[in-house]
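Final report, Chapter 2: Outcomes

The project's central promise was a pipeline that accepts a single protein chain and returns its three-dimensional structure in a standardized token representation, suitable for archiving and comparison. That pipeline is now operational. To close this chapter, we reproduce one record exactly as it appears in the project archive, with the input sequence first and the structure output second.
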Amino acid sequence: PGMGGEPGMGGMGGAPPLACADAPNLIDFFAEAEINEEGVYSVRIDVPSSDGLPASQCGGLRSGQVFALRVPETAVWLVSSDTFATDYDTVLSLWDDCPAIGAETQCDDDTDGFGALLGEEIEEGDVLYAVARPYAGAPATLDLRALPLAPVGVGEPCSIDVRQACAGDLLCNFDAEAGESTCALASPPEILEARALRDDQTGLVGLWVRGRDAGRDVTAIGFELLDAEGEPIVYDVQSGDTILYANLGEALLGQTDFIARRLAGLEDFPEAVGLSLFLVDQQDLESPRVEIDFAPQPEADGACDPRAVLDRCPGAQQCYAADGAEQGTCAAVDVPVVEQARAYLDRTNRTLGIEVSGTDANADLIVLRYAFVDGNQNLVEVGGEDIFDVEFDTLTYNDGTFAGSWSGPVNGPGLERAQSLVVLVFDNTLEGSEARVVAFEAPPEIAAGGACDAGLGLDRCAAGLACVVEDEQTTCADPAPLDACVEGTDVIDVNPQRAGVGRWQLAGATFTAIDLDAGTCVADLAGVQSHVFTAPSDGTYRVTIDAPFDAWVIARDICRYAGARFERACQEPGDGPFDLELSAMDTVYLMIGGQPVDRAEDLAGYKRSRGAYTLTIERQ
């Protein structure tokens, strides 16, 4: 929501002043807040100013800003750092009293596209304390927001859209039947029926559980393997652990009545004769345990379970089913065959295009694999990798045959040694075709107005032209339209940021950037912040990036990625300054970003992929 709005509330009408001895710069939030037309209160400050704060359980520095919120109404109050207005990686925490060691009640570290968000039910006139601090680096502009939601009971809708939140210990979970989130009791799930079917040939065990959960938030099946005496089997001798978990992800969220299925590889425990099974929800509540013996997994007779939980196809047959189907059909495994392949390599623009066709009776290809080889058919590493698995850009089937293609940039050293390409395909049984060695060809040249490959590898526009996307059509045309950035791109103009004669400098951050990009030194960049600079005169301009995170920098003549021909530089983290030779009124675009990292899987890597930076351009 926009900020704007009415002036602050002036200290709640005669209530005693708010103060904390260890936070002399405490801000009385509602005394300073503006409220917009959507009922959101906000306070914006330039630099948080309190040092020596108690540590947060979510990490971050010991410096930040303390806010006191004496709330004007009884509600569930959401408190958030607005990512799009806050210029640093924020850790937000709530406290029932002035911040002190051990008194923190909640904390949250912001993530891609969202600010840190916390909520607490509090009575009118009571005081809540919030601390916003940097995770690392220097603090800068901060925007703190607060929004009241009406507390409601079981079965009532709960969301920011309806301005309602669940009262007390109720959970706000999605209800698949209602098609919206509603309040539910935090109650443990229950098991109504369970089976454990073991394939003695492979050791795989199919877990099938029919259950019920009023909280609608089951996320895993937990179990202990039992030996012939009914004793739990220790699976990790060092830790003594006996409990294993089969994660269900988000498959059952929102469902009150459900069937959970998972296939578990338990071939290392031949002594197991059964298991003690339970369900786990998002609150770590567990169902009562159920002990069941393994039963032999039956062979399917024509119809089969695509998940291989309830049965298995005989011999070398495979269960084939449409995506999401509950039932499939057993059929012989047909290995795909690549009959024709072409490889287009543009060494100048460092792009590769692959076209393959052949037979695949089951129409279930999932991966195109390629590798570069030298004149002796030895693998060649390109960019530190020797085997590449990619998804098809295009893939069509027709009466047992297939045709597919892929194209994209080739990044990193080693390409000069490559003489040909090895190509093969895999289906969803992970059966691979025989490898086919393909000689490189030059991409076909496309004249003005001709359709071209948006991936830039299957063809090449004639000299002076570029593959331009207009109205979802890609044609070879004058590259001038590419000077304009994609609609919605946030581009910072460097020229107004003068820092002396022949020197320009600005401080920025990629915390809120959402653009994607690529270059010759990096295939994928996420959270990219774009800049534009126009040289005032002929000369050499040195570009320096000072960043505490793993920042890639791409310099090119046009805003959008359109191949190496428009690129002037591509710098990896830590490569240092680089020079650009520019003529008067030359325009160059500078993209700064990090590689995409899944925050849930690698928090440390995620933190290194984003951050604040200083960009300096100096005429030499």
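Archive annotation: Helices lie at 29-32, 603-608.
This record, like all others produced under the grant, will remain available to the consortium after the project formally closes.
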